[in-house]
Amino acid sequence: MIPALAIKNYTLDYATAAGPVRVLHDISLEIAPGEVLGLVGESGSGKSSLAWALMRHLPENAREISGTLRLGDTDLLRLHPRELTKIRGRRLGMVFQDPSTALNPTLPIGRQVTETLIQHRGLSKREADALAIDLLGHVELRDPAAIMRRYPHEISGGEKQRVIIATAFGCRPDVILFDEPTTALDVITGARILELFARLREETGVAALYISHDLALVTRVADRVVVLKHGRLVEEAPAADIFRAPRHADTKALVQAVPRPERRLIHDKPGDEVLLAASDIEVHYGRASIFRQAPPPATRRIGLDVRAGEILGLVGESGSGKSSVARALTGLARFSGKVRFDNHEITAARDMNAAYRRDVQIIFQHPDASLNPRHKVGEILSRPLKLYGGSAAEIPRLLEQVRLPAPYAGRWPHQLSGGEKQRVAIARAFAARPKLVICDEITAPLDVSVQAQIIELLLALRAATGTAFLFITHDLNLIRQIAHRIAVMRGGEMVDLLPIEDFDADHVHPYTRELMAASPVPVG
Amino acid sequence: MSLAWLVRRLMLMVYTVIVVSMLVFAITQILPADAAQSLLGENATPEMLAALRAKLGLDAPAWQQYLHWAGRIFSGDFGISMRTSQPVGPDMLTALSRSLLLTVSSILVTLLVAVPLGVVAALRQGKLTDTGVSLIAYLGVSLPEFVTATLLALLLADTLHWLPATGYVSLLEDFGDGIRHLALPVLTISVILIAHVVRMMRSETLDVLKSDYIRAARLKGLPERTVLFRHALRNALLPVVTIIALDVGYLLGGIIVIEEIFAIPGIGRALMVAITTRDLPSIQAGALIMAATYAVTNTLADMAYAFLDPRIRYD
Amino acid sequence: MTELFVRLIRRPQGFVGIALLALIAMACLFGPALAPYAPEKIDFLGRFRAPGWQNWLGADQFGRDILSRLMVGARSTVPMALIATLAGSAAGAIIGVGSAYLGGRIDEAIMRTNDAVMAIPGLLMALLLVSTLGNGAGNAVIAVAIAFAPGMARVTRSVALNIRNQDYVKAAVARGESAAWIIFREMLPNAMAPIVIESTIRVSFAVMLFATLSFLGVGAQPPASEWGLMVADARQYMYQAPWGLIAPSAAIALTAVAFNLLGDGLRDALNPKDER
């Protein structure tokens, strides 16, 4: 039987000013008709380049050194541009990572679905409209006829991804490439998209290449998994086996790094002394003007307390208000309500004195944005020392604490990798010898292996200093490994605040249960 | 385009006109140490000065003078020209109509030429067509209007005798001749605007072509023509609408020079005459009308933008 | 700094821009010394002499050497444009950064008013101011500076607002840094690049605006050899002696092109992220 998609000895370089850089080394893989192959790799592994090569959409500096790419009996490398438009979308579909940018903002949804049907299946406009409504209904969009008339900004991210999936399936392609289709979505929305994918796959028998950085997710959707590292295929195994019996060392490391709630990383109990107690916190952005009312507060009467040395997890999806809590506690957003810290009462940002600002530190999500690009690492670290007492002589010790070599003090932020930048941000927070560190999604932009290192570092620092953490994340599996208690937020309200032991109990909020169901624990 | 948005936009326009009126008044009547002296010159007798001061109300405090003046202006009375002793308002509005004919034709010519040229340059990025278009556009934005006007007149009127060098003929009197007289000034303004809009159109098109949704459209197997015309063009044109509205401000400044050179009795020329003869009411009226025209154009452009971009329609 | 310069002259725009500016700077510094004739030396035998070995760029209606007048005239055009832009940019930058830092309703009020002021076209604003202050080059500098400030304020404010929302500024606020530290050490160094680029491009507008004011008779006054004035003078005789018109026009255009090129070159050189 001819495979639906076959890649043989494919090698790809990018020409750069410093000479050619090899991004894919001698890749060979096949996808049988109806099979789903998962392709897993961290950033820079070359997984996206492989997708662009298959879609024949490589950047201009790409040099294809050797190998073949075949879709069924078609040699993709030899296609004339005109023949290519008959393959793309028709026989080889694609679903993109970020649905919010993959739809044209100024065209109605209907038009963007029907144009491929008209182009590839030769339908009339009326037939295409009817089929599009059918397709949109089939991806479980409510009132598809109304969706057809809407513009992309008028529907949610999950709905957009459904529209794109409907478009991809609309022409009944042989193979569909899925490029991280749930990464840009919330956990629960992503889980629904995966259910939809499973159903459509069953119904249509389409073959798929499913690309993701998330090993646990890929093992659930794919029949077979290949692992890509630095442009080489390092492992190929049935999905069921990869967690149980990873063969290659790189795969083992990747499996190790995947967070699993049952593998607890802390074993101590925090004290009873309450370090910070916040009550009735409402965060306000924007004020009323003559023309519009003030927007509703981003959080509604949130109350939480952090005990000395405790790790309190704060979980929620985007827009749940979890980051607003962090901003309120650090005086970055206007809030009403009360914060008690060390017998000191705070009702507004101006009540936060130097002692509070020293004791409560924040680390932001994007290390690129949180380090001033015009300051060297040494200067960045010297500021908290200057403000809160300490001398520049401590900088090497601070760097060593986050396992960076002392000469890094002389470097600029743009000379560091993402993980290294986040270490500098951590060192800056710990330079103040804080009692509480607020971590706002600090591992979200990092690869799993780097995330595991950062978590390990934070726990080591906690062991050395006894600092408490307010750890904000959307990753339930990760937080269940490290938190003593977990608060769950939705739509600005706190729906649950539970000790970790109670998480499997019956009395958890239905939303929390839904969240847990959407982030399944890796099998094996 | 909701009603609230429209009301807010219109109030902003009114605010703009109020601020401009204050500024124009301050510059022309308050800032000069003695407006009467500067109006009448060195040979004025004290009696003449006192009479003029009383006439202009220069003895009152500044804010009273302004309120009095603004009250008159907003009730439509722009005063009597000191040069011609005729009411300023009607003359200025006639002049404005001629200037608008000039500017609107120039914008139309610009759109017809610059948009396709910018798209072509973007599609041929780095090739000879692109370099050529970009170089000419560079030169276009680096030439002041009086240079462009003079050089074009030298070429098309004095050397080739294709077009009349100066003058204005109403389209209602003699349409053909009117167009011939409009051609050179319109061409001059268009050359400058085209240079500017081509640059914008080129860079906007390049940006849009790099966007994810264009990639998605290509990877859906749509032919390049469809990708360009259905998906790219509208999105690339959107920011250009705003740019053209901003250009109108520049254009209104530019017509002062253009009308002076080509002897067109529009508002720019009227203003220049008023400034050289120190005709205070005419200066004030001309400047106000010009700024108000700009404010109105900008509001219209914002409305056009809201109409073209579905994202702000329900704002 | 040297690294930036190297990056700048490696690009064609940057190289041509800097080469042209070096030429213009030479003319400004040593123009009178290098000029073959005195700019006001009248030669009735040489009236309207075509470009040739005696007068490289020809002579005008009084037989004055056009090249010499251009070289001397550089002084009354380019430095003025630079000073006016610098003053206008500085004023605009202060308004813009201040407005962004204050934020909220004050910011809104400042920027709405600023936008309203921009409804008066730059040339008209300059003309009104000059007619009030009196003709002359010095007043023209003030007028152009004032006409430029609102546009610069708008650009600076949007840059500053963008930086104000960066996490490193938030980190500084959360750390309890002083307002002065945040504005001068965290925000300003990051805002400088776009401000410098914008100002450089605006110098070319200033050159054109000055020439226009002189052309209209309210800037530099005869017999100065200001370039715009030279164009205005030559217009009467443009059929007899087109070189009298073309030479100063080309000088204005080249100067404007040079600053435009430098600005575009700086934009590329200061954003190394675009380099692939």
Secondary-structure topology with pairs:
The complex is a heterotrimer of chains A (524), B (315) and C (276).
Chain A: E1 5-16, E2 19-31, E3 36-40, H1 47-54, E4 62-71, E5 74-75, H2 81-87, E6 92-95, H3 99-102, H4 109-121, H5 125-138, H6 144-149, H7 157-170, E7 175-179, H8 187-204, E8 207-212, H9 215-221, E9 224-229, E10 232-238, H10 239-242, H11 249-257, E11 274-284, E12 302-307, E13 311-315, H12 322-329, E14 334-341, E15 344-346, H13 354-359, E16 360-363, H14 367-370, H15 377-388, H16 395-401, H17 418-430, E17 436-440, H18 448-465, E18 468-473, H19 476-482, E19 485-490, E20 493-499, H20 510-518
Parallel strand pairs in A: 3-8, 3-9, 6-7, 7-8, 13-18, 13-19, 16-17, 17-18
Antiparallel strand pairs in A: 1-2, 1-4, 4-5, 9-10, 11-12, 11-14, 14-15, 19-20
Helix pairs in contact in A: 4-5, 4-7, 5-7, 7-8, 8-20, 11-18, 15-17, 17-18
Chain B: H1 3-30, H2 35-40, H3 46-56, H4 62-74, H5 88-123, H6 128-142, H7 145-159, H8 175-209, H9 212-219, H10 224-262, H11 267-276, H12 280-308
Helix pairs in contact in B: 1-4, 1-12, 5-6, 5-8, 5-10, 5-12, 6-8, 7-8, 7-10, 8-10, 9-10, 10-11, 10-12, 11-12
Chain C: H1 2-10, H2 12-34, H3 66-102, H4 104-117, H5 122-133, H6 137-164, H7 167-175, H8 179-215, H9 227-235, H10 243-270
Helix pairs in contact in C: 1-10, 2-3, 2-10, 3-4, 3-6, 3-8, 3-10, 4-6, 5-6, 6-8, 8-9, 8-10, 9-10
